[in-house]
Amino acid sequence: MKPAEIRAMDDDKLEERHNDLLAEWRTLRFQEAVGQLTATARIRQIRKDIARIKTIQTEREIELELASAGSSAPNSRPQRNEERP
Predict the structure, then answer these.
(1) CA distance 6 to 17
(2) Phi, psi of 73 (to 5 degrees)
(3) Which of 7-21, 44-58, 65-79 has the lowest mean pLDDT?
(4) What pLDDT was estimated at residue 80?
(5) Residue 65 contacts by C-beta under 8 Å, 6 or more apart in sequence?
(6) Which fold has domain 3-68?
(7) I want to staple 32 with a disulfide (CB 3.0 to 4.6 A). Which of 21, 37, 39, 68 is the partner?
(8) Does the structure show a pLDDT above 60 at 78?
(9) What φ, ψ does residue 82 adopt, rounded to 5°?
(10) For 20, left (φ over 0), alpha (ψ -120 to 50), or beta?
């Protein structure tokens, strides 16, 4: 799954996809433990997809926090009024 595809999804779809990938990952790990796994590369792909989804979710959370902080405080960086010797 490409990052552009993930960014195109809304938050509900992202959460649903994340949960689906976690369930598939658990199944594959179990299959690996009992020696039934044939598609070993799929585990790595799922882990990367989960990481991409979490990264984009975090980006969205940060954007929301910045947007809400930006509207309440026009200048978030404090100004220093004292002079240095």
Answers:
(1) 9
(2) -125, 110
(3) 65-79
(4) 61
(5) none
(6) Helix Hairpins (1.10.287)
(7) 37
(8) no
(9) -85, 150
(10) alpha
What's at 40, amino acid-wise? T
For residue 7, what are the contacts with CB-CB under 8 A and spacing of at least 6?
56
14 — phi, psi (to 5°)?
-60, -45
All residues at 6 or more sequence positions from 37 whose CB lies less than 8 Å from its CB, including other chains = 28, 31, 43
Total Cβ atoms within 10 A of residue 35: 6
Report domain extents, the chain.
Answer: 3-68
- Residue 28 and residue 32: Cα distance in Å, rounded? 6
Query: What is the pTM assigned to this prediction?
Result: 0.77
In the structure encoding, which two tokens stand for residue 71, read together? 């509207």
d(CA 18, CA 15): 5
Q: Note whether 52 and 3 are within 8 A (CB).
A: yes
